Structures are given as C-alpha cells and as structure tokens.
Amino acid sequence: MEYILETQGLTKRYGNKDAARDINLHIVEGQIYGLIGRNGAGKTTIMRMISGLSAPTSGTYSLFGKTGYEMGKMLKNVGVLIEYPGIYPKLSAYENLKIKCIGAGIRPKGYVEEMLKTVGLENTDMKKPAGAYSLGMRQRLGIGLALVGDPKILILDEPINGLDPQGIAEVRQMLVRLRDEKGITIMISSHILDELAKVADSFGIINEGSLLDEFTAEELHRRCGQYVVIRTDDHDATLKALRDIGIGEVITEPDGTLRVSDHLDDTAGMSRAIVNAGIALREIHLQTVSLEDYYLGVTGGGEHNG
C-alpha cells in the first residue's frame, strides 16, 4: 500500500510533558484520514509538525516517500488550515484569495474564480467583507486559501467545529468532492465523530499524546455497525441451531456471548430456532455501535470533545 504521509516515532515535548509521543501514522494517498481525540490529546500538535509549522523533538516523518531536505521541498504540496482561517475580515472572499495567489506567485486567468467555485463561494456578493460571513462560509474560505497552489494533501484541524447542520453538510460534501474529483488526500480532525465516520476512509485515535489505534473504514464497520447479541446456556448447541437456519457470520466473545452480523432483521427467527432446540435463551437484542462508542471504548470513556 502506498502512503503519501508516514510518521516514525514522532514526538513533541514541552518541558517535561510530551504533547505527542512516538506517533506512527500511515495515510494512504487519495483518501480521507480522520484524526480523533479530545481537547489536548495532541491532534493539533501532530498536524503542526507534519505541516512544517512546528519542529518535532524527536522522530521523523515522510511525505511522498521523501524525508529531510527533500521532504522540505515537498511541503509546498501541503495545504493547511489549523485552528482559525487566516483571513482579512475587511476584504471579500475574492480579494482574500487574490492576495494569497499573488503571494504564492500564482497568476493564471480565472484561477480565483475556479477556487471560489471549488469551495462553494462562487455566488457570494463580491463586495461583502469576509468578516461578515457566517462561520461556515469563513471555514470554506479558509479551505479555499489552503487549496491555493493545488496541494496534493490537505491538513484540516476541526474544520466543522461550531458549524450548524447545514454548514457541516456543505463542508462534508466539499471534502468528498476534493477527494473524488481532484484526488486530494485529506487529513482531518474532528470531535463530531458521526460526521467524521461519513467521510473518512481510515482513522487514528489519539489519547494523552499517544496513538492508541489506527484502522480503516472497513475495519470500523466490522468492529462497529450493527449486530445481534445472543446469550444462552449452551454455546455449541446455539451455534448449530443458528447454522441450521443459514446463519454463519457469528463471533464468539471471550465470555461466550455470540455476535451475529447477518440476518439482523430476523431476531424472531433466531429466538425460535434456539428455543426449539431446547436451549435456554437468556438474552437476544440488536446492538448498534457507533464510531463514538468505539472511540470511548478504546480510550476508556470520559470526555470526548477535541
């Protein structure tokens, strides 16, 4: 598998405290990577290091397979929006983008107009100052500024934080378009985990400066999603009774509980088969596990904002 970005033992220390410790991330080219963690977990610290805004205390990282000086030259292919969009509040979206383009030496005709269209601001009043925009519009402008220069990877720290449902949906749809239509790799952090689950292809969970888990959307679906929980007094007989009615996707937990991941709409049929086989059915119910549930299980619960 080809990684556009990898980190190897990446660590950032402030005094005696590790803000990020021994981080090993793997981000696949052309995918959306969701970084999950509460406030102070180390997400922003990691993003600042890999975008060149902060030097690591130890460890390293590679972009496009390049490290050291060669990698430094590749940072021009990285677009960054960390914390708040750096906009001129008295200037319009067009003027903000125009200034960024001039600073980056980008002058092709129609470039700013195309960038406004990319982030959904093409119909915005060109005389309206950006300081008067809604939070969602400012976030989209911030992403537009990060896209100037056509980066191959985009690093976004909490881009949907504070947005209303419509603003969240608009940013989410835009990120999917950037991935699918322009092939841009996106690293995004968010505490709105259900929204992150809708767009990300892979995930990393950060807690107290450490990377606890890294997994793909497919792996998340296997670990989470929906399944039927069954508890009986005879494990082997229950498995046979389920197989007899065509149910084969069953996982046995260490305590003997069964997790069934197919025929989810037929709990009545499962119950009937178990009881007819003379097995004492102690519990059966449909369980739904979200990304947030999984995150809380990995981190041990508690506050999950960040």
Brief account:
Helix content is 35%, strand content 27%. With 306 residues, it is an alpha/beta fold. The longest helix has 18 residues, at 165-182.
Strand order of the biggest β-sheet: 6-7-8-4-9-10
Per the CATH scheme, the topology name of the largest domain is Rossmann fold
How is the quaternary structure best described?
Answer: single chain
Question: Which second-level CATH architecture of the largest domain applies?
Answer: 3-Layer(aba) Sandwich
CATH superfamily of the largest domain: P-loop containing nucleotide triphosphate hydrolases
Query: Count the strands?
Result: 14
Q: How many independent structural domains?
A: 2
Broad CATH class of the largest domain: Alpha Beta
The SSE string, one letter per element, is EEEEHEHEHHHEHEHEEHEHEEHEH
- Rounded mean pLDDT is 89
How many helical stretches?
11
Binned, the helix content reads: 25-40%
> Looking at the structure, what is the overall shape?
elongated
Structural class: alpha/beta
Q: Strand content of the residues, in percent?
A: 25-35%
- Main sheet properties: 6 strands, mixed
Cα(first) to Cα(last) distance is 30 Å
The Cα radius of gyration reads 24 Å
